[in-house]
Amino acid sequence: MTDIQILNLLFGVALFLFGMHLMSDHLKKVGGSQSELLLYRLTNSPLKAIAVGTGVTAFIQSSSAVSAMVVGLVENNLISLKRGIAIILGSILGTAATGWIIAYSSLRFASPLASLLSARVLSAVFAIIGIIFKVFIKKTKFKRIGEIFLGFAILMLGISTISAAVEPLKNNTAFLNALISLQNPILLLGIGVIAAAILQSASAAVGIVQTVSITGLIGLPAAYFIILGIGIGASLPVLLTAIGKNTAAKRSAFSYLCVNTIGAAVFGIIGGLIHLSTKINIIMTPVTISLMNTIYRLCLVLLLIGLIPQIERLCIFIIKDKRGEKDLKRLKVFNRKNEIKS
Q1: How many domains, in total, are found in the chain?
Q2: Residue 197: half-sphere exposure toward Cβ, Cα within 13 Å
């Protein structure tokens, strides 16, 4: 890549991240207090907790934000650790919604009528509406809605810029050979972990993979293992929210890492065995990556929904209480009290 292409690529990534954070931050401000109330009131069963976690995450476009809310609620004994783990499972599924927005933005419409619904047209419309709300309307709520629209428009502009920057790589032999040589599952997992940790967002990391896949250079195995790694790397911002908090908060934050690590281990082994036996290497697109990401996260929730008590015990076993309390013996009593309150 030339210096200009690299600069455009980084510029596109910067726009993408800024747009995502702008949209997410103002969605949290519009529905933040109501979201926390939902997490508190409507999570008295694992299925409800997962459903609420999924819905709130899909709305505010950030599993890290929802998990941070969970850390705060668990820290203040408003919900149990078990309930918090169920909400976190839901947030892991809900974060797949962003991938479908990005997948839609990659579609190219043939007919003139359908092209009116293209990402470029929609982002322009959202930008115009957003700036009107932001500049010309005095009510704070409408200003925030305007900033949500502007964030969406900037996010789409970032995707477009990244796509244009990586387009020439289709004909770059050196890059193609380097990408094809990436077959080691552990290395691919590591790439996913690092990408999500640096970007501080699973949605952003998956979005970058989707955008690069427009070049037609990413195969199924590479995308699969990178997505598994992204789940682990996305745990970093959640773990950071627990710094300086009590033991319960640290356990709830650690459960995010625990769930994604279990998922990467189980589905990594399954995927590795399937790849070794079949040697399937389908070229991925933004749509197929979004579909795979959603299916993986749904399978992870279905796998672990019945193991929430065991995950809770694992978190308690690994993160000891400094006061030496016998938490495992008191766990059932604590959960019963929370069930009575709810």
Answers
A1: 1
A2: 13
